[in-house]
Amino acid sequence: MKRHYAALTFMIIGSLILSGCANGTKHKLNSPHKLTITTTLYPLEYFTKRIGGKHVSVSNVIPPGTDAHSFEPSTKDMIKISDSDAFIYNGTGIEGFADKVNETVKNEGVESIKAAKGLTLEKVEHRDEDPDEHGDKDPHIWLDPVFSIQMAKNIEQALIKLNPKAKADFTKNYLSLKKDLEKLDTSFNQTIKNSPHKEIIVSHAAYGYWEHRYGLKQIPVSGLSTSQEPSQRQLQDLIKHVKAKHIHYVLLENSASDKLARVVEHETGTKTLKLRNLETLIPKDAEANEDYLSLMQKNVQVLKQSLK
């Protein structure tokens, strides 16, 4: 039912936009001196603001604290995107609505920018009885600081194309962000390398890139999407593994359901710590003026404690 509703919504939105064009009422909301950019995931919003600086006005379409895997844009969201100069999306399958958005606004003068362009996604081993709805590729590339550098580069190049006169500022801002991401990469590398243990229990399989980049081993309670719940047998096997390996922590997320992870906690006597998957910036972190870099550093500290 939800998919049929979403499809109908996009048809209505497309009709409204085309109608506006026919009547000559469609217009861009941005001034000629400032680009308006709509992003999907919080890291893309952060990267775009850092790189664009004074030359951009950026807003994220997915509300704070919302699960990006299941989000569907409203009519208001679609009109907002169609009135932007550019729509920046991850492009790894996590935004199930992205292709429909691109199709709807392709004739509206909106530049669609795939932040993950040129990146090779890691394959995921998913449960046979619970197939991965994203295929066999892990979409959570923004959690890898090295891949984030390439995403930021793609955004920088797109902004230069949209406003060549601001190229010097965009490049300067990108290089500053790149330096910060390189420091973050070093923090992850040193923390995990120097930890006596390498396994973490996580609420869902969002941290595969830490495995491939730094040698960490994630043991997820749920699949790539939080809706991919384990079977009873798999849950029992996980509980046995936690006990056998004397794992002391289960790592939960602020934006994901922790029901099954709490079962593991209860059955094993483990404690819980919080990871940020950063799909969205939760209101509590926004109020505390946290950002991508500060929250990723908090993730480093969580790993340091959980891997003791």
From TrEMBL:
Keywords: Signal, Transport. PANTHER family: HIGH-AFFINITY ZINC UPTAKE SYSTEM PROTEIN ZNUA-RELATED (PTHR42953), ZINT DOMAIN-CONTAINING PROTEIN (PTHR42953:SF8). It comes from Fictibacillus marinisediminis. The keyword Signal applies. One of its GO terms (biological process) is cell adhesion. GO terms for molecular function: metal ion binding. This is Zinc ABC transporter substrate-binding protein. Residues 1-22 form the signal peptide. Gene3D superfamilies: Nitrogenase molybdenum iron protein domain. Belongs to the bacterial solute-binding protein 9 family. It comes from the Bacteria.
